[in-house]
Amino acid sequence: xxxxxxxxxxxxxxxxxxxxxxxxxxxxxxxxxxxxxxxxxxxxxxxxxxxxxxxxxxxxxxxxxxxxxxxxxxxxxxxxxxxxxxxxxxxxxxxxxxxxxxxxxxxxxxxxxxxxxxxxxxxxxxxxxxxxxxxxxxxxxxxxxxxxxxxxxxxxxxxxxxxxxxxxxxxxxxxxxxxxxxxxxxxxxxxxxxxxxxxxxxxxxxxxxxxxxxxxxxxxxxxxxxxxxxxxxxxxxxxxxxxxxxxxxxxxxxxxxxxxxxxxxxxxxxxxxxxxxxxxxxxxxxxxxxxxxxxxxxxxxxxx
Length: 304
Ligand code: CCH
Fold this sequence. Notes:
By secondary structure, the protein is mainly alpha-helical. It has 2 domains: 11-138 and 276-300, Peroxidase, domain 1 (Orthogonal Bundle), CATH 1.10.520.10; 145-272, Orthogonal Bundle (Peroxidase, domain 2). Helices cover 43% and strands 6% of the residues. The longest helix is centred in the C-terminal third of the chain and has 17 residues, at 265-281. The model has no long low-confidence stretch (mean pLDDT 93). Bound molecules: ligand 1. Ligand 1 is lined by residues 37-38, 40-41, 44, 77, 139, 141, 148, 165-166, 168-169, 171-175, 178-179, 181, 242, 244, 276.
């Protein structure tokens, strides 16, 4: 049964949501003190299921609320991101989850010092599991360049865009109980920058096999290790890279972009803003006024 669509939100309503998101970012007891990184990963995993050929998946629908998608091992840990946003949804019930998750990510990136990213709303929420994309569409960090191309070409991204998107690993960390990998890519993982690319190039990354058998690459910052020992800990000095991150260095077409982004933060910010906006729009058809025209879900959206 079609419901009467609600009116399109005003700029003031959207600003109010963004303001609520900004307020929840500071989470002293969570990870590195910020909800920002996991919110960025939530939006990326919501959108990164897109398949251009079948025009399925993507950030429309917020399918991760359902077990079929939310319970995918690739999405382990993202329940924390969704839980952080529940009070925002409760305070602004007019916004769809699909819009909230994507808006939260661009708000968090900007608040963490990253670029302003174009965002458009009007996404709708699925009302059952039937349109949830199949599992297995998200990348596997244990693999290499060929796998990255297989995954990201499916969404319609180029080699340059793959490298720019990978720069999101300036943020956050890996959790052994979520992905099996452990640690953070940069020393300040709640500040958006091009540090990830600089570290990739500058350091001598060594393969390390974790107790679980998972292989990743690590670098021990000796200066930080010395400081850490004084403070009774040494873990803080160890930074990590996934095998997929390392493939950006070894692949002939990816590497020149790693070098350019390491040298030119403004270029990285410009390209990241563009490609992240593209990611969030995958599978979303809009009319000339910017309203979504994905007819199958329109009954749950708002209409202007
Ligand atoms: Fe990522 N990412 N990501 N990633 N990712 C992980 C964490 C984050 C891969 C694997 C992993 C992107 C691309 C890739 C973030 C944003 C993006 C983790 C650790 C793995 C594994 C998860 C855990 O244990 O909690 C692979 C493979 C790819 C292939 O390209 C892209 C694209 C983006 C966004 C544009 C962010 C942010 C995190 C940190 C999450 C957190 O909880 O701190």
